[in-house]
Amino acid sequence: MADDTGKFGVGSVHPGIPNRRQFFQLGAGAAAGWSLAGSAFAQTERPSSPPDKPRGQVIAALSQEPTVFHPLMPGIEVDQGVWWQVFSTLWFIDPDGKFVPDLAREVPTVENGGLSADGLTWKIKLRSDVKWHDGTPFTADDVKFSLDLINNPDFRARSRVGHSLVKDIKVIAPDEIHWRMEAAYSPYMSILGSLTFIVPKHVLDKVSDPNASPFHNAPVGTGPFRWGERVPGDHILLNAHTGYHGKGPYVERVVFKYIPDLTVLYTQFRTGQIDYAGLQGILPNFVQEAKTLKGRKIFVSSTSSVEHIAPNLEFGPFADRTVREALYFAINKQAIIDALNYGLPTQTESFVPQQAWSFQQGLPEHKYDPAKANALLDAAGWVRGASGVREKGGVKLEFTNSTTSGNAVREQTQQLLIQDWRAIGAAMRVNNMPAAVIWGDFWQQSKFNSVIVGVNFMLGSDPDVTPRFGSGAIPAQGGRGYNTYQYKSPEADRLLAEGARQFDLAQRKATYGELQKLIRNDLAILPLFQGFIAEGVKEGLQGFRPNINMSINCWNIREWYWA
Amino acid sequence: MARYVANRLAQAVMLLVIVSAIGFTILHLAPGGPLSQFAASAQMTQEDLDRVTRQLGLDRPLPIQYLEWFGRMLKGDWGKSYRDGEAVLSVISSHLGATLELMATATIIAVLFGCWIGVLGALRRYSLFDMLATVGAMIALSIPTFWFGLVTIYVFSVRLGWLPAGNRETVGDGSLLDLLHHLIAPALVLALVETAMWGRFMRSSMLEVINQDYIRTARAKGMPEWRILTVHGLRNALLPMITVAGLQFPTLLGGALVAETVFTWPGMGRLFLDSIGYRDYPVVMGILMFSATMVLIGSLLADILYAVVDPRIRVG
């Protein structure tokens, strides 16, 4: 057995040389999955608790390259993978959906006096034992600076949703900060907890251009890992911050390795070159095999993303709810889940993930019923023409469906949909485009007929979907948001406004429950399934906890350790 | 000669301006843009996207954007990447080393093996070796680099465990041995097509040379065969190879792009692919201009060298 304990105690592979018999076995296809990579955990004793001081390193592979290191600027999920290691938020959301204090001493509530009853005044008490990576103490000035920076018109802030309501920020003491909200907005709790990282005032208030400074490529944070080095196009190295105020870190170094091809990423996971196969994980077709690999653990977990068919509700036939209902009845969802996605995802009827506190149980369950779909269309006056395609009032029941070209599973889904819908007299044509094209104006300005897309509707863990379903959020109609479905409902607007004002969890659950029933009944979207991701870790690597409330599951590397 | 070089330089500069204008226009007219990746994100509203578009200056007319970019480029400022805010030249230089390392190794392998196979094939025309070399070259030229790369990984990394399944180095090691260990597979995969090409060209060139009168004269004078082949044969047969070398650069760059993707090699090819995907205009334009310049320099050097060694083809 090869010694697998590398320079940092784990993870490196020293493949041996096979003997002659093994060499000739290659042609026989024997010993599938046989690899000479040793295990990183060949230990006689397994400590059940983390080590006293950081030990070893973790090589975490990502299929996209993190490139944005200022955590308040536009970035994607992979960037967040780095942000969670280098920076801290006032509080974070754990896998159970609970807010856990981080830079704040406690999460503000009406009961503890952190929130006024009307939700307009916020008083945050901060920890006084936190230090930036350069040794400077963290204070309330940093929080004020971060919130001000987001609202700075010259700064390319990722989003000002919620932040733009913040007024009169007052630093009361180094460990206390107060502010007033222009209007009550309960989702702000989740925005602060999952999307708002605090940046150092002492580093950034000296820079002339807030959009470009040395900080952008060598960030200083309060998180569990310090910036080490970046080899563009290859990897990012972070070192343990021994002065971290929270639990951990338990590994000396984290290496984020960029491997763009998912097949290659899986191969390197299989050969032991990487310790964690992260975003976008292991391809579904490899999952079964991956589960049989020796010394590897596979986690298939739900994500907040809901895979659905997005109808453009202003497009001819889709304006008719009966058509949407008939199309929904005609979809063989189970075939899409089982045959194309290896049975890994979960069927859903809601835009809210099933693990969320706000998920509404008991929504009408989809049934695959082409006969009922046909009956509905017949009753609504959609008559089959000579070509077999239905018509009503000169409008044909034909439309295009688009998705990202190259996404094999979605392209296969389209083929199933074509068959399913042809059976009820609906003609669907495929109109796929590259990602950079489809998610441009085509999507944003509702130039599509229908699209297959996976969307995370949540704001962190908050179900406020005003930007998605609010009638004032339709970009094609001059709205501010991303209601590309062009869904308009006074009742939905009322519920959205109410939900954003409420701070009582039970009340909010009821409000968003009503909203989910409404969206399901109106079929503003045709949900297919809740998204999933299959990730893998080397056996012996402890602490990996998928978190549906985060954009990326390697949010807590500070808690990872080698047993 | 000086006039010939000056003419060729002027043509090259004109060509670069045309390439830049066409490249810039096509790139910006293609649907989507640098912010498309955020469109499906729950964190950025249309208002946010519009604001950042304005801040990046992407809402201005295209000709103005081009002239500004071109003016800055002439002053040596190639702009900054939209992805990480780094200066384009710095982004390119950070990836260039890896690509040059891969391309240089593959070229050395290809030239040595290709020339050897080509010469031997020419000297033993229609022998079993020559036929095997011909069939091998056809197969090598037909095999998709991507597929061959994956097969190489499967056999030598997954099954045999002899080579790493990609990457340029083991993070935390970086010794010369480690670097070479990682370089073997991608360099061999990239060298495969190149070797076949060099082999075929060399064989043709050598065949042409060994049938010349001066070779026959040398033999008649009793010159040793090894000397005839090296001094008279090989030297003259290598002349057309100068042109081949100059024209091989774009092919090599294309092959490197694929090899870098398969072997997670942090080079220019992958940077180009990623930058196009992200619509990182400044970086794509930077790579385009850099590559065009390299191709032009390659072909210019080949022509000049040829003109130096063969006075018959000089113009003017």
From TrEMBL, chain A:
Residue ranges annotated for the Solute-binding protein family domain, each copy included: 98-471
Matches recorded under SUPFAM superfamilies: Periplasmic binding protein-like II
An individual GO BP term: peptide transport
PROSITE patterns per UniProt: TAT (PS51318)
Keyword Signal listed: yes
CDD domains in the cross-refs: PBP2_thermophilic_Hb8_like (cd08513)
Keyword Cell membrane: no
Alphabetical UniProt keywords: Signal
Pfam families: SBP_bac_5
GO molecular function, one term: peptide transmembrane transporter activity
Family under the similarity heading: Belongs to the bacterial solute-binding protein 5 family.
Record localization: Periplasm
InterPro entries attached to this UniProt entry: Peptide/Ni-bd, SBP_5, SBP_5_dom, TAT_signal
UniProt GO cellular component terms: ATP-binding cassette (ABC) transporter complex; outer membrane-bounded periplasmic space
Protein known as: Peptide ABC transporter substrate-binding protein
UniProtKB/TrEMBL annotation, chain B:
Membrane topology: Multi-pass membrane protein
Residue ranges crossing the lipid bilayer per the database entry: 12-30, 102-123, 135-159, 179-198, 237-263, 283-309
Localization, UniProt: Cell membrane
Family: Belongs to the binding-protein-dependent transport system permease family.
InterPro entries the UniProt entry points to: BPD_transp_1_N, MetI-like, MetI-like_sf
Keyword Cell wall biogenesis/degradation (UniProt): no
Descriptive protein name: ABC transporter permease
Source species of the chain: Bradyrhizobium commune
PANTHER family in UniProt: DIPEPTIDE TRANSPORT SYSTEM PERMEASE PROTEIN DPPB-RELATED
Pfam families documented for this protein: BPD_transp_1 (PF00528), BPD_transp_1_N (PF19300)
GO BP term, example: transmembrane transport
Residues in ABC transmembrane type-1 domain copies: 96-306
